[in-house]
Structure formats: structure tokens, C-alpha cells
Design goal:
The longest helix is centred in the first third of the chain and has 17 residues. The N terminus is likely disordered. This protein has a 9-stranded mixed β-sheet, with helices on both faces. Strands 10-9-6-4-5-11-12-22 form an 8-stranded mixed β-sheet, sandwiched between helices. Helices cover 34% and strands 23% of the residues. The chain is globular. By secondary structure, it is an alpha/beta fold.
Amino acid sequence: MIRFRTVAREGRCLAAAVRSTYPAVRSSLRASGITGANRYLATTSSLQSLSYRQADPTAPLLGKTIGQLVEETAEKFPDREYLVFCKDGVRRTFSQFKEEADRLAAGLLAIGIEKDDRVGIWGPSTVEWVLTQFATARIGAILVNINPAYRPGELEYAMKKVGVKSIVSAQTFKTQRYYDMLVEICPELSTSTPGNIKSENLPMLRSVVMMGHGDFPGTFSFDSVMDYGKEEHFAQINKFRSLLQFDDPVNIQFTSGTTGNPKGATLTHHNIVNNSFFIGKNLKYDEKAHRISIPVPLYHCFGMVGGSLAAMVHGATCVFPTPSFEPEASLKAIQDEKVTSQYGTPTMFIDMLNHPNFSQYDMSSLSTGIMAGSPCPIETMKQTISEMNMKDVVICYGLTEVSPVICQTGMTDPIDIRVSTVGKPGPHNEIKLIDPQSGALVPNDTPGELCSRGYTTMIGYWEDEKKTAEAIDETRWFHTGDLATMDKDGYITIAGRIKDLVIRGGENIYPTEIEQFLYKHPKIEDVQVIGVPDDRMGEELCAWIKLKAGQEATPEEIKEFCKGQISHFKIPRYIEFVSEFPLTVTGKVQKFKMRETMIAKMK
């Protein structure tokens, strides 16, 4: 998830929307001669409650490194399965995994990786990915998650930005050939000796480690690195137990970069160990052995922190149906592996629920899971509970920069709360909603920018003080760029991105509200609403609609469904029927690409 800065126009429009919620109070204050910021402060103080909450800590924070957790969990549950990669036929117990992770850690030391070196990991979800995740953490290296969909230019930018010294790479992903792309940005690779790359374009790069088998000149094979460690390297791993501190950086994850070049959010052991602990505790992973299906990619916080790390913290089993999401493979994994907790973005759940073979699979083992990554449609949440047996499913909300989860619903929350909000602030975390222009707290039930403060906040963007200062203010509040409201009980509802706010003829319209309504149409499987330019109104609403299999509809039919049910200005002017949406690898809809397509079409 990305943090967007509020532009002045959006700030002014949202501020106007905020102020319009209590005109009578403002009028009274104006008559009293109170103006400007003082009037705003007096107005808010005259209201009973403002949008600020701090969660009651349910447990103390953990002061541990990832390496310490690996040792503790392997000792506690040595023979319990930790990893299952269904398509690859790979299974590892906790003790087996620790032994292999330490072998890889020793091998990385042997090829010259040192504390604080950046090690890239590039590929879909595989056992090698998880091994690299924990091996780097054991020796104090910083894992750099690289999007498996990156093309050469994007890969080059990421590696240069953080100074990647070594990259562990898959061979292929879908149609991409990774070695060829590496040679494109580092021509010297093909004529180098392994571990001795001297690149003019990538001066920090020293080694490339290729997963699998094959002839890749200039690289180490992953399996060979696993065998390179000698006695002195294993002794070094033991020394790191006391050398590493939980506040050390351990991971860099790039934001999606839809408003410019990606930024490298830098996270510590403390950030992600504690976030994974509380994610799992909320799902009661600490109370019984769970089996978690993880179709979301490991390179993203959802899969890596909420998945592989949370499972390590709590002794749960990770089930990876396929290297990248396939709906029927996920359904089959639930049945075959007796999955108890299912993860996914709303799009993934929609694809599973609407798969033609859905009814053939046994969902009885499921009880809980997480839907996150983008706004969760209420109707999809209801289907997940009723048709996938996930009676204890929760919603998580957050961003990469906050490790990633800062709000969660709870299993004991009423269903209407769990399907319509993102819950309350997580333990040891503060949330406030502010007027983006003035920075003042807004009243309850009033839209404002959601800000977070707590152990979750990243160190900053790697070597980018300017962007860090824009994201984290002087009092350590992280500004998310999301619009939200908070009710009197502290439950938070996301209205959408500030940048996605549609302003039609002076009316502020939140696309999420329109989407939630259109999901009720019996023919609609999925829908996304955006704003498109209009000479007269400034912006008009456009709905991209994916119909259920075998269904047909017309724009007029959709508009008629809306009439009398939502305000006339909220009815989309443009209706586009599509077979798919542009998605990121994590399954999030890229609305900026939808807007670009519509603008080109309307010319």
C-alpha cells in the first residue's frame, strides 16, 4: 500500500466537507468573533468526542529478533509442519526449516554477505523465498522484497535505490525470464565469476544466486550456497544472537509507486515481529494449532508478516497452494490440507466464491482468516462467512509503512461491524483522523485523513529524508493518505483514498460508498468506481462492472437500479462492462490505470 500526500485542492475540498457537518456551531462562533483556526478549535471542543483512539494493550510488546523467534519456535514445535508448498510437493517441519535456514545463512556469510548488507529476493512464493527471509534475518542482513512482476527498468531502480549487494532470484515468473533481465541491466554478469561481479551500472552488486537448476553464467546456484557454510560461519550465526538488536532494520519493501518512483519502506525486527504477533493473537493462533492458506504473495507485507512470520511466531502451519494465486488451487488446498484460516484480498475471495467448481470443495475445516489489501465489499464478506464457513473472519487494515496492520476487527465483534468497518486500532497503536488542511482532529462520524502512531511506524524511506518527512511528521504521526470516519465506539470505516475522492459539481463523493451499493445488484460480481474529467462538472462517476458468469446487463439497467436508492449525483454517468480489472501482483485494483484508459477512450 502506498502513502499519497494530500494535494492542496483535495485538502481544501475535504476541509470544506468536514466544516459543513456542523454549520450551526460555526455560525454561532462567527457571531462571537471567533475566526480561523481558533474557530475550528472552539468548534471541535464544543463537540463531545473527537476522532482519536489508543487501543488498550492486550499483551506486552516482544523485545526479540526474528532469529531468536526461529530458535524458540523450533524448540517448542520441532515436529509440527511449518511449510507446505502444494504445487511443488514441499513440506518442512519447524526443526527442518531452522536447520535449512541456518545452512543458507552460513552460505550467505561464506559468499561475503555481512550485517546490514541488502539482499534482494525476486520471485513468486517458494520455499527458497521463505528460507531467504529468515536466513538474512539470522545474520543481520536486510531483506529487500522485489516485486516478481518488475520489468528491467523497475528492477534496476530498486536495486540502485537501496544498494543491493546480492540478489536471490527465481528463474521465471509467468512469461518473464529473470536471468535475461538481470543481464540486461548488468551485462557484466554473463562473463563474471560467481561472487565477483563488477558492474558499472550496479556498482554495489557482487553476487547473484539463482534458484533451481540450470546454466546461468556468473551466478551461484541456491543449492550450492546452502552447502558453502563452514564451521566458522555457523559459529558466526551463534554470535549474532547477542550482536543483533530488535531495533535493527531487517526488511525493505517498496511502495507501488503509482504517484512516482517507488519508495523503500524500511522496517525493523521490532516492527514486524510485534505486528505478526498481534495479527496472530487476534486470530487466536496462540490458542491452538492453525493451518493458514496464503495465496497472497510473499513479497508483500500481507504474505510475509501476516503469513510466514506470524506462523513462525505462533507455531502455525503455512500452506501455499501455488506460487501465485489460482482460485481453484486455493479451494483444493483448503480441502486437502484441512486449512483453518484463509487469507486473501477481496478480489481473491470473489474469484474463489464465483469459481464454477466452488461447490465441489469441502470448506468445513475453515473457521477464520483475513480479508485485506483493499476495501472489502460488505456482500463479499457476508458470502465468505456463509458459504466458506469462515464465521470468525476478520478485516485488517494498514499499509507497508506501518508493518502493515494498524486496525483489525475482532472475532467477537458483531457481524455488521466486521463487514462494514476495519475495526479498532491494534494494541499499542494510536489512531487519529484529521482535517488535512489544518491538521486538527475532526469530530466522530466526520471524514478525515487517518494517521497512525506506535511501534508499527517504519524507520523511514531508505535514504530519502524528504519523502520520510512528508510521511511522518515531527510528532511521529504517519499520514496514510486514506479518508476514514470513526464512530463513538472507536470503529473505523475507510471511505477511500484522498486522491480517489470524486468532486462532482462541488459534491464530495466517496467511490467506496457507490461500490458497496452496486455489489447488491444480483448480476454484479465485482465493481470499481472512479472519477473521470468533465468540462462542466469537473468530474463524473464511472463504474467498471464485472458481471457474474452467464449474466448480461445494460448501462440503463444499472442506472435504473440506482434510481431512488442513492442520490442522483451518486449514480455513475459512465458504465463499462469488463472481464477483468488491472491488478497489482497483490491483487489490488489499479484505479489510476482505469482512469488512464477512460480518459483515452473519451478523447
